[in-house]
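We give this protein:

***
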Amino acid sequence: MSDPVSPSLKDLPKVALDLKSELEGFNHGCMKKAATAEKNVLPSAEDVRQERQHCELIHGVENFNTDRLKHIDTVEKIVLPNAQDVAAEKTQQTLIQGIEEFDPAKLKHTETQEKYHLPDKDAIQEEKGKQQLISGIENFDPAKLKHAETLEKNPLPTKEAIDAEKVAA
C-alpha cells in the first residue's frame, strides 16, 4: 500500500470570503464552559480478558471432537452384607413380626391403686392460720377506724425565709 499524499492547495474546497473572515475573527472567550461527560466507557483489561476466556471456552465446547474419547465400560461393584448385617436384619424382622402378631388378649388384668398423701397436722394448722388472715382482710370494716389528726413534722419554708435566702445568695 502506498503512503497517503496530502492534497494540493488547488484540490482543497474553496470557502466564501465572508465566512472565512468570521472564522478568523472568532473569540473563544465568549463561549460557555461545559463539562464533558464520557458516555461510552471502554472495557477494562480484566473485562476483555474474561470475555476472551469465555469465548474460547464456548468455542472449545462447540468444536469438541468426540472421536478422541475412549470407550469405558462401567463396573458396578455390589457389596454383599457380612454376617453381622444379616443377623441384625433378622432380629429386626423378628421384632416387627412380633409386633404385628401381638395379641392384647394375652395380657393380665391389673388394678391401679392411687395413693394420696395427706398433709400432717402442722401443715393443716398453718393453712388454717392463713385462712383466718385472709378472712380477716376480706371482712375488714373501715367504720371501726378512729379519726386521726396528721401532724406535719417537716413544714415548708415561709415566703419571708425564701426571700431572705435569695437576698443572701
Remarks:
- Residues 48 and 146 are 101 Å apart (CA to CA).
- The mean pLDDT is 86.
